[in-house]
Amino acid sequence: MFTVSTVNVNGLRAADRKGYRAWLAGTDADVVCLQEVRAEPEQLAPEVLNPEGWHAHWAPAAAKGRAGVAVLSRTAPDAVRIGFGSAGFDASGRWLEVDLPDVTVVSLYLPSGEVDTDRQEEKERFMAELLPHLVDLRKRSADEGREVLVCGDWNIAHREADLRNWRANRKKAGFLPEERAWLDRVLGDEGGYTDVVRALHPEAEGPYSWWSYRGRAFDNDAGWRIDYHVATAGLAGRAVEARVERAEDHASRWSDHAPVTVRYADA
Structure pTM? Predict the structure, then answer.
């Protein structure tokens, strides 16, 4: 089996104090993708920067204290690439590709946006630039006999089943019609990718992966499913199990997101 976990850590230094390192020590994943690291490598404890048994690669944001992604793998990558050829976003700490045997794994942190603000315009620009790269990456990888897996915080709930209170959020960033339509393109004939967790659980509500710290969202499971495994068809067809590693209770959380873990059968 090939097991991959993805999680937005909501600030890795804070997550480490709350239990991230213990989770990492106990995971059986072969690859772990992190988003919203919000730290320069030199700000991380040595045991976090280079954890024993892992090959860790980091893509911090040029804007200090923002974004930042990483990929940790048990096997050393053949190649590592930061960004996707965008002059505006390659230094933003939102895209990191690693080539492992037969599969390219990506850690993605798509901007969250906010309606009628510059943040939403940034999100829309990012999406517009990313889709052609996703298409090109899939085609190039197919020519090389490789699969692609894009893991991360996509900051879009695709369907009504992907958030508990969808009616109240129809005009909010993360569930806007144009954002959902863009994901339709990624997951349709144009992009050619598959939402792995949804394919395994086509009728399920959720499973949610993010809950606001406000109110009792976590206790009431009033969450959003915005952390995805998005894969090319061959790899998606090998997915056998998906789970959200939801904390036992509010006090046990080390992020406002939970790891999303998928097991893939070997080719």
Answer: 0.96
Judge whether residue 267 has pLDDT over 90: no
Mean pLDDT of the chain: 97
Dist CA 21 CA 37 (whole Å):
14
Question: Among 16, 153, 162, 195, which one carries the catalytic annotation?
Answer: 153
Q: How many domains does the chain have?
A: 1
Q: Is 257 a catalytic residue?
A: yes
The catalytic residue among 20, 30, 109, 158 is 109
| Residue 37 predicted with pLDDT over 90 | yes
Given the residues 20, 208, 257, 264, select the one marked as catalytic.
257
Which domain CATH number covers 36? Answer: 3.60.10.10
**Is 193 labeled as catalytic in the residue annotation?**
no
**CA torsion 10→173→182→69, rounded to 10°?**
-10
Binding-site annotation, residues:
8, 36, 153, 155, 256-257
Phi and psi at residue 123, in whole multiples of 5°? Answer: -60, -45
CA distances from 76 to 27, 80, 217 (A): 18, 10, 39
- With tokens 């976003």, the residue in question is 89
Residue list, annotated binding site for Mg(2+): 8, 36, 153, 155, 256-257
Beta-strand (E) ranges in 55-118? Answer: 55-59, 69-73, 79-82, 95-100, 103-109
* Residue range of the domain that includes 253: 2-264
Q: In angstroms, rounded to a whole number, what is the distance separating the alpha carbons of residues 183 and 179?
A: 7
Does residue 57 have an active-site annotation?
no
